[in-house]
Design brief:
The complex is a heterodimer of chains A (204) and B (315). Chain A is mostly helical. Chain A contains 10 helices and no strands. Classes of the chains: A mainly alpha (204), B alpha+beta (315).
């Protein structure tokens, strides 16, 4: 992929990642979030987080399948946007929903299993966002890669969080679960070796 | 639907007498509430604003002093899985759902089984306004001025036999007109149940209207149950069948997730749900959370029904 082409892709990624936030802000200011706006914000930021996180996780497998190296550069920006929406998701809960009454928040949700999945996922994204800079990459050296593999754990926890949150038979969590499982399978060294050997279009 | 049913002024001997002052106060309260939350929500979309245009209620507050939830919110925020999981979209989806003709079959262990048309029900049983808090198991709540009548009056008419211990309710099954039933989010038709003494309690009503008008479809037209001390899902909508039975009926939610939804489902801040704490709630239209009250604040009238019962076990 040419550098100019990639720049275009990057612009599209930024626009698509920011558009839901712009729409959310617009709907909020126009009072279009329905009778329970706090819950609406929570649902929307949650689903954007999950989508962007899975998109970020899809980059390496997509590289495996296509051989287009630049796709790997999208992992960081998609991951950071996922962290951004996850932060809104968390701040909406703690701030708007519980007005930063952490005692009440803790009492209400500490034992909820979806929180036991969701909160650690958020902490992982926080650590990965902080250490996403070139400076931290240098400082951590070889262990940077190991730390950033935690993103897969974050992905699994996020899908679990979603799964434990829904009430009835809806396809959403299952669809995300299947996609995530497929992406994880494509990350197995055997799968990557096979792809490198057998896919003729892959640039070597 | 509204066209088929005689106008409420004809069929309700005591509808809602609104004094001019009361009407202005109610309107004022709604306006004040709207102003406070204007930043968070706006005008209701679509048809419902039409429904609410002439909404009226004799009361502007519940007996604890809390304001009524605005009519727009009551008709635009609904859990009615027979149509959709999208709370804001039910009204639109439910447009044109046939609620006439409509009959409710009262049977099972009774001396006088009967099939009542909705028109019979509206003429036979005096309709009155009841302002009740509605507490959803999802930790949000509303204050709604229902129109309805005690369930006991319909049950007494049917004369329950001595063996009858429970009441089983069944909602309409019409997958052709109800997309949520086609999607099978739950095992439909929706089923709910009450113990006979709960059903006979004076607080328990069959509602046929709200805000002075016949129920909109998204709120359970033409007739639905309202048991204000229990979580909202007990309040089965669009009822077609009421049976007196000997065994405890299995409700749709008990079937879907027995560890999460019990038969009793009494509002209780001390018995958490696996997904939501029940200690606080968001009153729709308010920003800060409220403390949830045991039996949703109706303990005086209903606590005695559960004397000696372990409410954690019988959740």
């Amino acid at each position: 992929m040419e550098k100019s082409q990639f720049r275009l892709v990057l612009v599209v990624v930024h626009v698509l990642s920011l558009a839901p936030l712009a729409l959310l802000a617009l709907d909020f200011s126009l009072g279009r979030l329905g009778p329970n706006p706090i819950r609406e914000i929570q649902l929307r930021t949650g689903s954007y987080t999950l989508f962007l996180l899975v998109a970020s996780l899809a980059c390496t497998p997509l590289y495996t399948l296509t051989g287009i190296l630049r796709i790997l550069d999208l992992r960081r920006v998609l991951g950071l946007y996922a962290f951004g929406y996850a932060s809104l998701h968390f701040v909406n809960l703690a701030g708007l929903d519980y007005l930063f009454d952490f005692k009440a928040l803790w009492a209400d949700i500490a034992e909820k299993r979806y929180i036991l999945a969701g909160f650690p996922a958020f902490l992982i994204l926080l650590v990965l966002a902080i250490t996403s800079t070139a400076g931290w990459k240098r400082k951590l050296g070889k262990s940077w890669k190991r730390v950033h593999r935690l993103v897969y754990l974050a992905g699994v926890l996020a899908v679990l969080h979603y799964f434990w949150q829904v009430k009835v038979r809806v396809p959403g969590p299952v669809i995300y679960g299947v996609i995530l499982a497929a992406l994880l399978l494509l990350r197995l060294p055997a799968a990557e070796r096979l792809a490198a050997r057998r896919l003729p279009w892959r640039a070597s | 639907m509204a066209d088929e049913i005689p106008t409420r002024s004809e069929i309700t001997p005591e509808p809602i007498y609104l004094s001019r002052r009361g009407f202005i106060a109610a309107g004022g309260a709604i306006l004040a509430g709207a102003a406070i939350t204007a930043a968070c929500r706006g005008a209701a979309p679509g048809s419902s604003s039409g429904f609410c245009a002439d909404a009226k209620s004799a009361a502007s507050k519940d007996e604890l002093g809390a304001n009524l939830t605005s009519c727009d919110d009551v008709v635009n925020y609904n859990n009615f899985y027979e149509f959709s999981l999208d709370k804001g979209g039910i009204g639109e989806l439910a447009k044109g759902f046939p609620t006439s003709p409509w009959t409710v079959a009262v049977g099972g262990l009774v001396a006088k089984p009967a099939t009542l048309s909705i028109e019979d029900i509206l003429t036979k049983y005096p309709q009155e306004e009841r302002v009740y808090r509605l507490r959803c198991v999802e930790a949000w709540s509303m204050v709604i001025p229902w129109i309805g009548f005690p369930l006991a009056s319909i049950l007494n008419q049917a004369q329950p036999l001595a063996a009858a211990k429970y009441v089983r309710f069944e909602a309409v099954y019409d997958p052709e007109d109800m997309p949520g039933q086609r999607a099978e989010f739950l095992d439909f038709p929706y089923v709910e149940g009450l113990r006979l003494d709960e059903a006979m309690n004076n607080l328990t009503i069959l509602a046929t209207g709200l805000y002075g008008k016949p129920l909109p479809i998204q709120d359970g037209a033409p007739i639905r149950l309202v048991v204000p001390w229990k979580y909202g899902f007990k309040n089965i909508k669009s009822i077609v069948k009421i049976d007196l039975v000997e065994e405890m009926p299995e409700s749709s939610w008990m079937k879907a997730a027995p560890d999460e939804y019990g038969f009793y489902a009494n509002v209780n801040p001390d018995v958490p749900h696996p997904r939501w704490s029940q200690s606080t709630e968001r009153r729709i239209g308010e920003l800060a959370r409220r403390e949830t009250l045991l039996f949703n604040g109706y303990g005086d009238q209903v606590a005695s029904l559960y004397a000696g019962m372990d409410l954690k076990k019988y959740f």
